[in-house]
Structure prediction request, 610 residues.
Amino acid sequence: MVALPALTGALLCAVSAFGQQRERRWAPGAAVAVLLAECALAVLAAVQRPSVSAGFLPFAPFALGVDGLAALVVPTVTAVALLVAVFAAADVDVARGRFHGLLLLFVAAVVVTATATTLPALLFAWEVMGATSYALIGFAWWQRHRVAAGDAAFLTTRCADLGLYLAVAAALAGGGGLALSDLPEASGGWRDVVAAGVLVAALGKAAQLPFSFWLSRAMEGPSPVSALLHSAAMVAMGGYLLLRVVPLLEATGWAATATAWIGVATAVLLGAVALAQRDLKQLLAASTAAQLGFVVLAAGVGSVSGGAAHLVAHAATKALLFLAAGAWLSALGTKQLHALRGVARRRRAVGVCATVGALSLAGVAPLSLWATKDELLAATLRTSGWLYAAGLLAAVLSAAYAGKVLVLIWRTAPRDVEREFETEEEGDRHVGRLEQVPLLVLAVPAAALGVVALPPVRQVLLRLLGEPGAPAPGAAELVVSAALALLTVAVVWRWGVPEPRWARDWLGLSRVVSAGVVRPTERLARVLARFDDHVLDRGVEGAAAATLHAARRLGRADTSVVDAGVQRVASAVRRLGSLARHPQTGQLHHYYVQAVAVLAAGAVLLLLVR
Prediction:
């Protein structure tokens, strides 16, 4: 399940890197075939629950396993990825090998993230997922603003990812082990550090406050990338990780409460941001952060079943809406809402599918996000009335921004916009059947997945996730929620919706980060650069000059003193050698005379000494 997309993706990237043009024809088909097999493997894994472990560190193996939560999420991820690949086969027409190769590598990383049972495996997959998402967001490398958007998304999530490194270090120091199930056993203070690190990393990936602004920049990527990364994959993995570590959050005494309030605050404030947007993809991006806020809220109140059900239903709904936006962008060359007025009337198939997605996003009964939202809100009500009230407000905002989409795509366009569309070429207005197929398929789960939060399917889900006593929404809650959604959509349809100007620029988060982090960092970098140029470089150059000067002096001393001394010693040795050769005549009687002389000298010396 991991090796198949990883190896095929690496092969496609390699073929594309070597400039082979044949991959334009066979790369999309290969990617679709691999993801089709991946879906079958994911379903098989969900049934058989396999696990695998390999030695990595003496106290922390590299381990993967499919538990109840992974059995629900992994098939969802692979199914959405398959439909996105089908759509991309018609939508992406440049560097197909590179695109589909990166897509497969990304899917492999997400599968490892979803099945990792130890922090080393999670950290490895977390890094690969971030790197491939950066490459996919900035896929159009010839357009600098798109590459810059990839930079912003990558650097923001990378800053949050440092929390995961902190969590690993604290888990080692705390002695609890590096398995996710062992994290609550870390010693007191270290357990708090582990929880804080995991929370920061997950909030960054899930585009929760204060990291939400990167999701806006990521909308510069291709529509298939937005549909995958921001529905079932990378953004969803942030919320998924928090669902995996609910015992750790609850063990700290503070992390669960902080998680719940951050999630509901994101759901409310990013709901307001979505209302203020006039770009369809920006609206969907803000709504993604808001809907993931519900999942984070569920993790904070301990509702794993509610969070998981909402995660899965949101994946189908948001993938459907992003692909519809991509189809309209390809057909009309615009994603501005004012230019999309009445577009659903002219392209009925895409319009009907988008309507199903928007109604589901609004929480209209009996569509998917209606019941799943109430499932987690029921658990919220048991925890805090204030949290529940804020969750209801976020639900109303969901219906409002979904209603805004419905109004704009179905209301008849003004005459000037209609004339503009009439002057376009027919080829530019066509949405191909290959692009419509994923929309039609995704419309089914977007409409029907809410059944997982209703009996008797809910009982199966609770047994799967090990939550037999999870609170269930009552009939009154379900009815009130459905009535609120319908009423909100009707009000928006009749009177429109306010667009809060203060929220249009994503709460100014990008400016705040730029003023509070980016610019100070740049100023510090400039100061350090000047210090490097004027102090360190001059110091190094001075040391080099002093070294050269000393080397020259030592060279002269070596030549005039050491070499001269060696030469004088050599001359003396040569002279002594010449003197020593004089007695060596080869005549025997000379040697006798020399021996007698030596013996006589010795006898005289002996007599003198005595």
